[in-house]
Each structure stands twice: as C-alpha cells, then as structure tokens.
Specification:
Muramoyl-pentapeptide Carboxypeptidase, domain 2; four-stranded antiparallel beta sheet; two-stranded antiparallel sheet; about 10% strand; 2 domains
Length: about 260
C-alpha cells in the first residue's frame, strides 16, 4: 500500500443526515402519491359544483324567462267570426271555389273588414316617415288566382322547356293555384314602393319589418322554408291582429308555427 493511502484517515458517515435525507425523500414521494389520488377527486368535485350551480342558474333563467314571457294568446269571439283568421291555406288546406269573405275597400283594394283601419294607419304612418307604400293587391278570387297560376305555368314551360309537372311544382311556390292562395282570405296584402331596385333592399322595407306588428301585420312568408312549400316573399303581409302579431314576434314564430302552438294549448 502506498504511503499516501496509508496516511489517509477513514471518512466518517453522518448517519443522522443520511436518515434525514432519506426521510425527506420518502415524504416527498408520499406527497406526490397523495396528489395523484387527490387531484382527480378534487377536479371531479369542482366539476360537480360547477354543474350544480350551472343547473341552478339555468332554472333561474327559465323562471325569469317565463316571468316576462308574452301573455298567453286567446282566440277571441271577434276572431272566431272569421273562419279563416287563424287558418293556413295551402295544397293540404284549400279554400273552396265559392268561398268569398266579407270585403270592404281600403287603400284602393278589397280586404276583410278587420284589415281596413290597421292598413290605413300603417300606410299613413309610413308616409309620415317618408315611405310611400303602395298596396298593390288585397283579396284575389279563386278564379283569378287559378288563371294566374295557369298562365305562369305555361310561361315557365315555354321559357324553361320543362315538363308540366316540373312547371307546376316550381310555379306554385310563388303563384299557387286557386284555393291554395291566402289572398283569397282577404287578410293578405301585397305591399311595395316605387324603386329601381329590390323592395327588400330599401329603407321602407326595413321600417315595415320593424313596425308591421304594431298594426297587427306579420310577414307571411319570411323564409324559403315556409309550410306549404311557399318561397320567401318580401311583399306579402297578413293581418293577424296586434296581440297575435306581437306574440309571434316575442315567441320568434312564423304564422304556421304559431297556429300549431295554439292548437297544442
């Protein structure tokens, strides 16, 4: 053995420090293992609390909504006197050829008596806003509507070189045959203004959409997904009375959805 090695003294091991470090490592390990178990449970607990309070908030929101929901619509005797007031007219629910409602003259067209004064107020108030609305049509008889449809079908066949079935299917979305048009009820009016462009693009149209319910009117065919397969129409407005019109807007329902809702009450 070399002299250098012989001169070295054995190094003493501090067993107390060793045990303390070992204990510290064991404690850290136990803490980590506990966290692995506790953290998922804690997350589940937080999630459960979130779901609970979320549900309570939802119930509160529903209660608040119900509290401020529009008044439940009631079919009054006055409306029941008109058999088509709350009736959708289409190929599945047609009007007889001899059906002619009671009619009065208003704004240059024939309409049901319920429509006359509200229509005149709407036109007058629109004029005050600078919009000269034109009432292009009101009541259209079964015979006149049928003639329109036949002429439109023939024109479509000629222009598109299509079959009769194809022509009829496409034309009836905008010009239905007699008995399938709500203009026969006398409750629908065709409104427009003089414009070089589309009525739907005018400020007058925007004003009409915002304010028509205040006069008891609704846009009859507001989209391309209307019951009966009718296409969107910017011109046709149906009188339903101020209460029903405001309820339809509050419930965000079109006419067909609303009368289905009423039937379920």
């Amino acid at each position: 053995m070399s002299r250098k090695l012989r001169g070295m003294k054995p190094r003493k091991v501090n067993r107390g420090a060793f045990e303390e470090r070992k204990q510290r490592e064991e404690n850290q390990f136990e803490t980590q293992r506990a966290l692995v178990v506790i953290l998922p449970l804690l997350m589940l607990a937080v999630l459960a609390v979130g779901i609970f309070f979320g549900y309570k908030f939802y119930q509160s929101s529903v209660s608040d909504h119900n509290a401020v929901s529009p008044s439940e619509p009631v079919v009054t005797n006055e409306l029941l006197e008109n058999p088509v007031f709350l009736r959708s007219v289409n190929s599945a629910s047609t009007l007889d050829p001899d059906y002619v409602p009671e009619l009065v003259e208003s704004c240059g067209v024939m309409v049901s008596p319920e429509v006359a004064q509200p229509l005149e107020r709407l036109i007058a108030d629109g004029k005050k806003q600078g919009y000269d609305f034109i009432v292009r049509e009101g009541y259209v008889s079964y015979e006149d509507q049928d003639k329109r449809n036949e002429e439109a079908v023939e024109k479509y066949r000629k222009d598109k070189k299509s079959s009769l079935i194809m022509a009829e299917a496409n034309v009836k979305r905008e010009i239905p045959p007699g008995g399938e048009s709500e203009q026969q009820t006398g409750l629908v009016v065709d409104l427009s203004i003089k414009t070089d462009g589309k009525f739907v693009d005018t400020p007058a149209y925007s004003w009409l959409i915002r304010n028509c319910v205040d006069y008891g009117f609704i846009q009859r065919y507001p989209s391309n997904d209307n019951a009966g397969g009718f296409a969107f129409s910017s011109h046709l407005f149906r009188y339903v009375g101020e209460e029903y019109a405001s309820n339809m807007r509050a419930y965000n329902m079109n006419f067909d959805q609303f009368i289905t809702y009423l039937a379920m009450q």
